[in-house]
Amino acid sequence: MSGHGTDIFQSEPWSLLRVEDLGEAVFVPTMLSYDEQRYYVWLTREWSRGDGVIVDLGAFAGGSTACLAEGQRQAGRNAPVHGYDKFLVNDFSVFRKRCDAYMARPPASDSTLTPPELPESHGDDLRPVVQKFLSPWAKDLHLHKGQIEEETWDRGAIEVLVLDASKAADTTDRMSEVFFPHLIPGRSIIVQQDFLLWQQPWIAAQMALLTDFFEPVAYVPNYSVSFLCKKGLDAETVRRANTADLSDKEMQDRIRQMMPELEKFDLQPRLRKLIRAIRENPGRRKAYQFKTAPK
């Protein structure tokens, strides 16, 4: 399938994947929905060709990273998979309960494979736990612990880029400046995992400012929108699409500009919700500051 154009996305073929297609990735705790897990496996199994590395910005416990790594393993490729996160947890007992809850429900509970035991606590350091979770893919895996917005990139072209750490406008701007210039025109897919989350409207605003460079190709409920990189970007081009200093009106106008771009997914009501969220939470540029849900 990897030789096809973006029309391959239209029929949502990832929806045909079964629990078995997730492999051992089904047991790595995640906040992704089942549809999103299937999409991540499909993306690296069927779309990727190994033309660049795979980067997951916001890996947390490793669930998304596992799905990305599992997809390319099933395809017989071994491109490096890079997972970035602070890899910190405030209370391991709470984390353990979340893991137990995840394992007790589908898709994990539907798998016929034998689930692994939860790794032991390492205080607030989650990285050893994530390394254990991701041990089936360790050969091609690289975990980077720290503040993602402080990272640099010198590891070559990126074929799949997942952004799940866009919790503030300035963080979003910085990640884009660092990683977007390494995308492959006509090949790289970026996954904006929280594109439609009302507490993070700057994501849609930034993608509107970059419509000459990206084509929307997939929507996976409830919040994720993926884009194909159409042509190359440099850091200065991305910098001109920064959102942290946009006024509320400018951000709202950019989101309105995004509406026709996403018409095929019928997401206009969701985009209008982002606009209302800005109005209800004026001047806010961090997700945790959005206290008033849009009506």
Gyration radius, rounded: 18 Å
CATH architecture: 3-Layer(aba) Sandwich
Instruction: Write the element-wise H/E pattern from the N-terminal end onward.
Output: HEHEHHEEHEHEEHHH
Low-pLDDT residue spans: none
- As laid out across the biggest beta sheet, the strand order is 3-2-1-4-5-7-6
Topology:
Blueprint lengths: L33 H14 L5 E5 L5 H12 L6 E5 L6 H12 L23 H7 L7 E5 L12 E6 L5 H11 L9 E4 L9 H8 L4 E7 L3 E6 L5 H5 L8 H11 L9 H13 L15
Parallel strand pairs: 1-2, 1-4, 2-3, 4-5
Antiparallel strand pairs: 5-7, 6-7
Characterization of this structure:
- With 295 residues, the protein is of the alpha/beta class.
- The chain has a single domain (6-289), classed as 3-Layer(aba) Sandwich (Rossmann fold).
- Helix content is 32%, strand content 13%.
- The protein contains 9 helices and 7 strands, in the order αβαβααββαβαββααα.
- It has helices at 34-47, 63-74, 92-103, 127-133, 169-179, 202-209, 235-239, 248-258, 268-280; strands at residues 53-57, 81-85, 141-145, 158-163, 189-192, 214-220, 224-229.
- α1 (34-47) packs parallel to α2, α6 (202-209) crosses α8 and α8 (248-258) packs antiparallel against α9.
- The longest helix is centred in the first third of the chain and has 14 residues, at 34-47.
- The radius of gyration is 18 Å and the shape is globular.
